[in-house]
Specification:
Elements (H helix, E strand, L loop, with lengths): L5 H17 L5 H14 L8 H14 L3 H5 L4 H5 L4 H5 L4 H14 L1
Length: about 110
């Protein structure tokens, strides 16, 4: 599909559109159209690797995801990584913090 011949690329787009119509939720059409538009917008001599494409796609996907979607699947430790203790406590009810501290003192 990364062929430099525009005719072959157009044929690939046509074939994938037919497949995507039969199975619209697989995302193939969106991916192919993005590749095609990217191809048309760049100068033919410009190098664009698969790694470049994947990185750009990942960045675009993250920009369109909510914070909840980006954090989905991460365990609590990963979600809190990089936050200092003050940031971790921000937004918690002081009574909850005090109760937790009292419990920790009793157990240790």
């Amino acid at each position: 599909m990364f062929a430099s011949e525009l005719g072959r690329l157009r044929e690939a787009v046509r074939q994938y559109r037919e497949r995507a119509r039969r199975n619209p939720d697989n995302g193939a059409l969106a991916l192919l159209e993005r590749l095609y538009l990217n191809y048309l917008s760049e100068a033919p001599e410009m190098a664009y690797t698969l790694e470049d494409f994947l990185q750009e796609t990942q960045t675009l996907m993250l920009e369109h995801m909510s914070a909840e979607e980006r954090l989905k699947g991460l365990d609590p430790e990963e979600r809190l990584k990089g936050l200092d203790p003050e940031e971790r406590l921000k937004g918690l009810d002081p009574a909850f913090i005090e109760a937790w501290l009292n419990k920790q003192r009793r157990e240790h």
